[in-house]
Amino acid sequence: MTFHPTTLHRKPGIGAAPAIGPGQPVVPQSVSGRFRRLKWAAVGLCLALYYVLPFLRYDRGPGQPGQAILFDLAQLRFHLAGLELRPQELYLLTGLLVLATIVLVLSNVVAGRIWCGFFCPQTVWADLFLWVERQLEGDRRERLRQLYLPMTAARALRKGIKHVIWLAIAAGTGGAFALYFADAPTLLRDIFTGNASSVAYGAVLTLTLTTYALAGFAREKMCTYMCPWPRLQGAVWDAEAFGVAYRDYRGEARMSAKKAAAARASGLPAGDCVDCMACVNVCPMGIDIREGPNLACINCGLCVDACDTTMQKLDRPCGLIDYESWTNIERGRKGEARVPVRVVRAKTAALALAGLATAVAIVAVVATRATLSLSVAHERNPVAVELSDGRVRNAYEIRVSHVAGAGGTVMLGIEGEAAGHAELRTAGNVDPQAEGIAVLLDERGSRRLRVTVTAEPSAAGPITFRLADPVSGESVTASDFFKIP
């Protein structure tokens, strides 16, 4: 079976009602069932995590931010509980993106666009906005009827209230997003008291408008035309993956329940599908799943609930539309027995192992990374200066940082030929002892300083600077050269 951009297969000679046509609004009907309940559970879970996570606290010690998850742009740090990442550790973010990609592809190979149907932010907020719309303007039939009626004061009031609630939800969405970038309780108070920065208000306004536009008006257009994943899924589509599919070998030929009963009584073929259009009416994407797999389908399963409800009313077996592999759909067309869908197979095992290896590598890098950082750059003009007493002085630009946090003190010393009889000087401080000089870190846990080393000409050669944490005992080194004029 070949995957086409819009549909995979259409049996010839079947007169099916088309999906939503161009220019027609997609107004999905409410539905109840197991997948609708799962979607509401996913909506509740995602919203709870999104709004609660910024307020979780984590004690990192004095002088450190107390927010568990914090994107600290001012200090250029990302805090995740006890883990702290800095811009120079961008490779860790790259690893996380690779891991997320593997997990997304794995989920697609197992169950199609299951992420899109249940956990994508666009789906979550669109579901919430649709629920508000139904409460105020009625279900599908009522809203479609109102499209062709003149505007009344009552309708205008309901529409106005709907948009006010939409904007309130969108503002809450934008405000919650901003809370991830500063101390949440403090920023929330500043926003409401008018003391927040213009950057904070700008971020809240931007997220408010985008959420309002995408969840309120774009909806299925976002998932079909703006998101790249529908196009990419063709590259990872798997015939053995679970996906929402129509068992056409059982449903065709379509006819009303009465005509089907008469046909069966006469010994003529009749399908279980009564062309009630319930599957199309409840689809948030406005597609007809009976036309075959469609790139716009987000595998939300609402058409399964709608079809099962119809089948139960007609006292026919459920599952005419169901999560099924395309392999079994083709087997059913040939009259062959259904085979169990193999979740564990070569492709899924390879992707799972790749994801596991990536996760282990990320954890290993984080667990073994150095918390201290030291870089040394030799000044070039002049390279060396000969003093009146015959000794030689070299100058270096040194940058030190410590993941442990702000205000700490680290020790900077030197090793090599110059260590025993060299003088280390910075900002007027002299400490010729072996342990070196104490460096007080700034609020970012870093320090940039100019260091001079004075020694006899015989000390010319490699020189090693050592940075040590007196509390943890950890140390790092960086090498350069001590030169003579």
TrEMBL record:
Keywords, alphabetical: 4Fe-4S, Electron transport, Iron, Iron-sulfur, Membrane, Metal-binding, Transmembrane, Transmembrane helix, Transport
Membrane spanning residue stretches: 38-56, 90-111, 164-182, 198-218, 348-367
Domain of life assignment: Bacteria
The keyword Methyltransferase is annotated on this UniProt entry: no
A GO cellular component entry from the record: plasma membrane
Xref: PROSITE patterns: 4FE4S_FER_1, 4FE4S_FER_2
Keyword Signal (UniProt): no
GO molecular function, a single term: 4 iron, 4 sulfur cluster binding
Domain 4Fe-4S ferredoxin-type span(s) in chain numbering: 285-317
PANTHER family (alphabetical): FERREDOXIN-TYPE PROTEIN NAPH
Name used for this protein in its record: Cytochrome c oxidase accessory protein FixG
